[in-house]
Design a protein that fits this description.
The protein is an alpha/beta fold. The protein has a single domain, classed as Alpha-Beta Complex (Spore Coat Polysaccharide Biosynthesis Protein SpsA, Chain A), CATH 3.90.550. It has 7 helices and 14 strands. The strands form 4 sheets. Strands 5-6-4-1-7-12-9-13 form an 8-stranded mixed sheet, sandwiched between helices. Strands 2-3 form a two-stranded antiparallel ribbon. A two-stranded antiparallel sheet has the order 8-14. The longest helix has 11 residues, at 42-52. The protein starts with 11 loop residues before the first strand and ends in a 6-residue tail after the last helix.
Length: 273
């Protein structure tokens, strides 16, 4: 039997509800999180990373072709032995399993609720602090570190996000970052104007439940009406109030948003495990 999960580990919400319009025709019959990257479904890379730190539970939200995601992963994820480097059984060398749960937005509301709407829908099934990551992002070096959780829990911040250097498809970035580790809601500069560096939001983040119960979120917990709401305006409002911290992540990271990016990932030897 595998060892008990790390008590400092917290649940995760993996966002997998999007239609993946830019990935068509690949996503006409396959949800984007199930597209293969380096021999594995894209979503599996996050699940393996969570298993390595002893995460006991993950919730996956779905909409487009969501039944395929549940059929693929079921109610429990067991990481392959080769990825079990943290929470292991000395006899079987297997990682602690991750219990999987689902929030089927497509079944319940006919479509995806956007990022904030989906998180609030899942809120009753999450803890006071939880991870969130998009299921269509490839970040094989990212660590869902218990140390980061401990620092965040002890801080006054309501959200902690990881930023990445700007990829070619988002040269202007999303948010700024202070030397003290606070995220900044910086307006996009006018052409030729100087401004602090802006970075791209990786989608990996830690949140406190209070972030979604604050003045900048008017959706009731559980989102019973199925309100569609983006996350960015909430983050920007919280940044303006000083409630969002951030860190720069410089490991491998790709927003797998087009067939061309997927093909490049699969043909690049630097992306192999």
């Amino acid at each position: 039997m595998a060892q008990r999960p790390d008590p400092t580990a917290i649940p995760a919400l993996l966002l997998a509800a999007g239609r993946g319009e830019r990935m068509r025709p690949l996503t006409d019959t396959t949800p984007k999180p199930l597209l293969q990257v380096q021999g594995k479904p894209l979503l599996q890379w996050h699940l393996e990373a969570l298993a390595r730190v002893g995460c006991a539970s993950a919730l996956i939200n779905t909409a487009w072709l969501g039944a395929q995601i549940e059929a693929r992963f079921g109610s429990r994820f067991d990481a392959p032995p080769t990825t079990a480097t943290a929470i292991t059984n000395p006899i079987t060398a297997t990682a602690a399993p991750v219990a999987l749960h689902y929030s089927h937005e497509g079944r319940d509301f006919g479509g995806a609720l956007e990022t904030a709407g989906g998180i609030v829908r899942a809120l009753p099934l999450l803890a006071e602090v939880f991870w969130v990551a998009a299921g269509d992002v490839f970040a094989p070096d990212f660590v869902f570190a218990p140390e980061a959780v401990a620092r965040f829990k002890a801080s006054p911040q309501l959200a902690h996000i990881w930023l990445v250097p700007n990829p070619d498809h988002n040269p202007g970035g999303d948010f700024g970052l202070t030397a003290e580790g606070l995220a900044l809601n910086l307006p996009k500069p006018a052409p030729g104007a100087a401004q602090q560096p802006r970075y791209t939001f990786s989608t990996m983040a830690l949140y406190k439940r209070a972030f979604f119960e604050s003045a900048w979120c008017s959706i009731p917990a559980g989102n019973p009406a199925g309100v569609q709401a983006p996350l960015a305006p909430m983050l920007r409002a919280a940044m303006d109030a000083g409630w969002v911290s951030a860190a720069l992540y410089t490991g491998r990271w790709t927003d797998v948003g087009t067939p061309e990016r997927l093909q490049q990932l699969n043909s690049d030897p630097r992306q192999q495990p």
